[in-house]
Design goal:
The complex is a heterotrimer of chains A (about 300), B (about 300) and C (about 450). By secondary structure, chain B is mainly α. In chain B, about 75% of the residues lie in helices and about 5% in strands. The N terminus of chain C is likely disordered. The chains are: A mainly alpha (about 300), B mainly alpha (about 300), C alpha/beta (about 450).
Chain lengths: ~300, ~300, ~450
Amino acid sequence: MTTLAPARHLPQTSAPAPQRRRTGGARRFLARLPIRLLVVAIVAIEVLPMIWMLLSSFKTQNEFVTGSVWALPSSWDFGNYIEAWVTGDFASNVRNSIIATVPALFFLLLFGVAAGFALEVMVWKGRSTILLMFVAGIMIPGQMLLVPLFITYFNLGLTQTIWPLILTYIAMGLPLTVFMMAAYFRAIPREVFEAATIDGAGMIRSFWLIGLPMISNAILTIGLVQFFSIWNDLLVALTFVTNRDLATIQVGLLNFSGEYGAMQYGPLFAAICLNVFGTLAVFLFLSKKIMAGMASGALKG
Amino acid sequence: MRDVLGDRKAIVILLAPALAFYTLIKLVPILWSLGLTFFDGNVLRGYEPVGFDNFTRLVNDAVFWEATAFTLKYALVATVLQVAAGYLLAILYVFVLRKGSALLRTVVFFPVILPTVAVGVLFKRLFGIHPTPGPVNSLIESFGGQSLDWFASGDTSFLVLILMDVWRSMGFFAVLLYAGLVDIPEEVIESARMDGAKGARLIRHIVLPLSLPVLLSAVVFAVNSTLKVFDSILAVTNGGPGTETQPLTLYMYRTVFTYNEYGYGSTLALALTIIAFAVTIVIFRSARKDVTADKAASR
Amino acid sequence: MSARIRRRRTRLVPALAGLAALSMVAVACAPAGGNAGDGGGDADGGATEFTFLTTVENPQIRDELTRLSENQCSAENEALPLVVDTIPQADVNQRVSVLASQDALPVMFVSPTSESKVGGDMYESGALLDLEETLTDLGAWEDVLPAAASTVNTIYGDMVSLPFQYNIEGFWYNKAIFAENGLEVPTTWDDFTEAAATLQEAGVQPLTASGGQGWTITRYISTYLARAHGVDALAQVSDGAASFTDPDYLVAAQELAGLGEAGYFGQGIVSRDMDTVTAEFFGGSAAMMYNGSWVLSNVYDEEDNTVGVDNIGFFPFPEVTGGAGSIDDYPANTGTVTAVSAALYNDKVGDWLACIAENYGSSLLENQGAISGFAQNTEVEGVEPLVAEITERMASAEDAVIWLEGPFGQRFGDAAGLSAGSLVDGGISPEDYMAQIQDAVEAE
């Protein structure tokens, strides 16, 4: 997550750079000051809620509800976390979320990029109609899918499995993925692909060897966006999962709401913190590997 | 060359999986649902055809018009602010912070990954008044102002919802647009710099036209997601006070799943889809002119 | 969007419609109920598993049934094993209707409240077992408390729900605050408003309620009406004999708005959630709270209740002077409907039901300290005094007062509930509020 997309490689020979270096530390610092303040302000706006969440996860119900928002918890014991782990059956929820998200994400990106390539790079009659059809999918409210899909999955005997989640996530993520991929492909000069065809490469080969690497930034970006929308989905998971053994993390969070509108805030936020900071850690770890892989790919390309 | 770019077999292989999934799991259920606009009833009671009754009812339904007005107002304000904030951030990343932007990108993206229920509770607390005033009201009081019950009126609730949505999504749009800005070829920017274009001029005349396709996609996406805003409003105001902040999606959801009126709910969904379609086409039309004009100018 | 595209689209539409029709045929041809997992039926249509669908938010029933399956009902469990599935409360309406339409209901399930009434879709579909007849046949009808049975019958028009829960509602008050301010338990509405005024003057917030949970507010209206016009006050509205906009009905909303106008509920009621309400009351910052007997679990939770068990008391909604209702009529409910599938019923299900009816009451009280609508057939030792008091009040209850939304449909529920907070804080006038809910009555 540190690097959502690689920083652009700045030309080493850029003319203004040496000049700026000569202007000296103090003036340079002052000149950058407004930017620095701006960055600090932005970071504060974004980080404070994170701190609030962490503080909340240690509070008792009373402290949370009646105490001031930024007050420190009276004690730093992990009771809420234990409660979250046990009541929420957190480990099995995490496993289900992974089982549903990873294959869905993989196929979603693969199909989406391929379709974006076919619709934007390749030339054929009717492609704008198909693209428009995909775009239309963005506009359709997801709630309308639920009842027909539930009945279908039920009749296919899939309701006690994780399949409904995977299939629905792929289909629901496609419009945005196809649409954005087409937009990113549009930004790439056509000459690149035309040159490849002169070399005699087939289009499937061009797709793997040129198309995919060219928009690896975009794939990573959309991949992240889709990952989080699938990982955080409640609507679909709620509708297609009755079996408690198949509950995802978001469904598991419901365990902390009570029948007459009550909510166990401490354990709820403990579970959210486990989820959010856990994903964050995995991404910090993964992003380094992804970056490394992409950098080497870029050099060869 | 054109033959290879138009290779039928390759097109089928690349497009078929996406098209199959999309058609079977999205389009078919949608058409199934939309077919219900001519019926009254629900899964349990069964359906009876009612012709155009649902549409006459729609036109005369004051709640529908209230929800539509709210939805459009919300989509307009939220889209403009989200995309503008995201674009400014993306420019900040690419042209000011450059390589140092990685941490900020991550931090600003962060709210996107928070579950809606957490964000909802957070904003309710931030703007709370009772039993202890939240930070916003404390701030107002410290400047000598009067604490405000933000959720007691539709207008102030609207403000809170917009702030929440912008806070939540600006990092998302920043990253989306960033990926577009990064892909602008170096040479173009460099040659413009050589020609003496700097700062705002560089952005206005070089960067903005080149990033228009991605910007356009971001606007389309923002409009469509704000037109369909649902769970964040459910978590913060539940459409209240009364139904003053009830978007079409929430009204539709209640009609279908609480009132068990599938036919009328599908009609509401159709209305929403038509609105989204109309808005998107208007955006495309107006933007396409700009793009072609600018492209012609830059060549 | 050239003409070319437009022409394409017109050709696309029939193609897609054809596809849609095809796949619907495919779905319809698939073996219905091919997966027995949900329904758990045998060859004769009877149950092979004791499947139970309950809400995520309510662990009480499933925990107690699991306990029974390991103890008193272990023989029944062996013959027909208990399998629990859960859905969120918000999903009950949708999911249970779909399951019913696919003949895939479990043996015992949470059923949508308004649809389970006589005339409702679930009831009319014939999916719900008549429990009075069944339990009578099983010789277990005596195990159901008469008051609980009458509550179910009053609300739904038939015995459609097992009384796993039975609650009465009224005001919970802070005895210490009352004593400090020299207040007695009010028995009339005038005493009640006077007590609230005294508390407000003394700097104590007299009442608390949640705009997010509209029922905590709308109960004031329905119970006031029941005190003023008798327990059939709402029935007269649904029969068309009275209207919420009649002056003698309107007064209920006016009295409630008056409490709000005087500031008795404190600020920010529209967005106040249930947790704030309970925290305020059990933290000692609000003197009274309208709530149901289920809050007993909070009373005995030392972490929640910082004012002490001995300082919490309960009094019924006060009488309206000269009114036709009696203070001994309690607003009562039996929680969410837990129905039994008529189609899956067989002798083994019957054995389970008989075992539940016999043991549930005592087991729940002993293990969870909670009260149900089943008789306590085994003496439970060491019952807390407040629990005993509430049990006694339940036993002595004469008629059940139905909640405001009870006799009407879901649209009415939203019309009444979503604006309830605004009625208290002045965002909507009592006249407009009552007109709004009367409109909802007439729309149904």
